[in-house]
Amino acid sequence: MNILQEYTLDFVRRNKRSSIAIMLAILLTTTMMSSLCGLLYTMWSDFVRLSIEKEGNWHGELFDTTYGSDLSLIENFSSVDDVMVKGQWYVGKISNDKRDYIIYRNATSEYWNSMPEKDTILEGRQPKNANEIALSKQYFESNPSTKIGDKITIPIGYRTLNGNSLEPVAPKSKSESFKKTSEITLTIVGKMDVTTSSVVPAYTALGYLDKKSIKPNDNITVYLRFKNIRDTYKELPKLAKSLGWKTNEYGKYNLKYNSNYLLKMLVFSPEQKASMNSIEKFATPIMYFTIAIFTVAVFVMVIYNAFSLSVNARLTQLGILSSIGASPKQIRKSVLFEGFLLTIIPLPIGLFLGWLLCDRLIIYINSINSSTGTQSVVYTYGIPAFLPAVLLTIITVWISALIPARKVSKISPIEAIRQGDSIKIKKSHKYSLGKIFGIEGELAMNALHARKKSYRTATISLTLSFLLLTGFLHIIANQEGAEDVYGSDAYEKQRDISIHLANGESVEPAFIEKLSKTEGVKSSLCYLKMSAATWLTEKDASKELAENGGFKGVVSSKKYSPIERNGKFRIYSAIIGLDDKSFTEYCRQISVDPKIFYNTENLTSIVYNKEEDINRSTRRDKVYIDYLNLSIGDNLKLNERIYDEGKGDYTFNMKVGAITNKLPQIINTNSRYTLIQIVPMSIVQEISKNYNEEGRLRSNNMMGLFKVDNREDIPKVKEKLESIYNKAYGSGDYSIEDVVENEEKDASGRKTMNLIVSFITGLLAMIGLSNVLATVSGNLRSRRQEFAMLRSVGLSPDGIKKMLALEGLFLGITPLLLSIPVQIAIVYIFLRINEIHFIEYLPFAPLSTIIGFTVLILFIVISSYMIGYKQLKNENIVESIKNETI
After folding, report:
1. Inter-residue contact 114 to 57 (CB < 8 Å)
2. pTM over cut 0.90
3. What is the pLDDT of residues 529-539, one digit of tens each?
4. In 3-state terms, what secondary structure has residue 179?
């Protein structure tokens, strides 16, 4: 160990006060870094965990027809890491009062281990051997005597209708029959929490698949994980191409991506990357980046301030060492060595305290979640949280020590010795505040000015801490204001209770009427949605759309559904069927006779002929133009096939009975360049009879929206509506939700976020204020001679007390004044990003918190001066003047 290192060790031992101050600053920094990294990693990992539980741990799916013969090529594809396979469907005939079949597929162990089905096992276990199945709970409900471990022997074959085979999941047909091909004995090893609509005459199951048993001609479904998840959107199309697949009309292969999971892993699709052209899309990243910059700056200033006091304390000694041959590099290394030496003890303690703080916070959050039925957060503090905390702390300490180290290494030995002897008081300045607060106010201002360099660190640190706190709160308030302005759409306002019926069969008007007359229901609206397509030419585009590039411009953007083929453009049309009462009310609102739209021989619709002008629209102010060149009486030729791979080819004409610029409030226009048509529900039901089976089922899925007389009656009304649905349909035919439950979940989420915000801002407040305490304490100790001289020339103890109180007031108010322009800039920037007005932000502005924190700053700063005053007033004047040590 060289002499400078020995000197540094000796200085640390002898100057326990300054060493402890630095160690406390590092401890506070490490604790903050540890808790923040742990909290962020926990939030991220929990989002990923929930995504995997819901959707599975896979990156992409080969959704087109894939055969067993392709499996070898897929597994040996260079970028593929794991392959998960589901085999072909099997249909087994059973004797049951409710359903006729058991339909099941087998899946490999990789699939079972990676997909959400493993978490749906209510009883028993997942299949691990051939001819073992986990069966839907609906089968157990219909067959109460069935137990886990039972064996069933069933004939295996396929469903047929008029000599043609039916899909295993096809709806039941009265004329269908079953053709047996073999027989199998299955062992029931698990009960699965899955349901299927009663329109499908089968119970579902999932078994075990050995890859060796897959035959070349077997239809299989393949899910993939890639070696590099970031290559998913690039490698999966390459794999499809190598299999010899053909692209669809959009030039894409029939693939599926686990987009929600990929997004959480920060993997963006080409479409998502292309849509990142608006500044509001970066509101959250900008928020985190802004906070990160301020946080690092605060940490650097906290530790730098402590190091500056230590370096100043040994400036004379460093000057002497320099005069006897120590190089600037050696001086710099000495200061840096002190920093890392003082990091050894607080680093592990800070990491533990950060872990403990974050753990307690997660426990408290989970206690709130359990009371609202929200899923608990799983606390994870692993290497991804530990390492960044350690690295950030070390880097922060290094930067903090490097700044004063470089400064002192550049000072000449004579300057260092002179500056170490005493603090040079600059010429006093007269300040207007002196006229207000008297001589004490003028002395306070002169003291701050004379030592502005020593106070600069504390001022900057407190300003940054104050800015970090207020900036964070301003950003959150901006987002809350934007959510208040844009959050609730018309659809949300139209319902207290919503029920989605998905059994695929036509709903009778009597059933809808029964729903609307349920006790407690104030109003109701039921609707169906049917898909169709029409082929148009450029002359069918409106004048405004033609000026914006017409259909060709829409297609060339590659963002929307229209495509071009042989000079024609395929336009997607959404046909909305309202129940009779709601349709009549809608026609009344737009002054149209509803009777003409009920003619099944001459189909007629109300056309919404508006489209958003993307060149002039903003998030707040939407500018609309006419979409198509249409007139009342025109005919639209529609086809059920909206994509090339779709089934069915039914074509029908729809006459334009009315053109409107007002939609029913249940309909949003998020689907761009879509032709929206409004008709009675019975018309959709009539048209759907000609659609292929899949299209017919989809078109008859009904959404019911219900408003309740009194909000407190929502749970009771929900039970009554659910009872009506239960009598008419099966458990898997519908889903129901109400606004009270959703608001409770949202409130729980907001409470959780407020806890996290309070946790972070509390730590930030501690950092800034602790730094001020350390700075004021150190500076007051170095000014003992000054106060002794002031007392010797006649300044009373009360005068010194007033002077120090005013000095604390001026020092404490400075960060607020310095931060005001930056706060204004932050508010302005995020008002622009979120596209809200200041008056809309104001109700959410954190004024009370800012005022409270300002008062707290002033109280603590002035209190720190008063604590120093109590120590100074009892000192002997002569001894203080003689004492030249710091």
Report:
1. yes
2. no
3. 999 999 999 99
4. strand
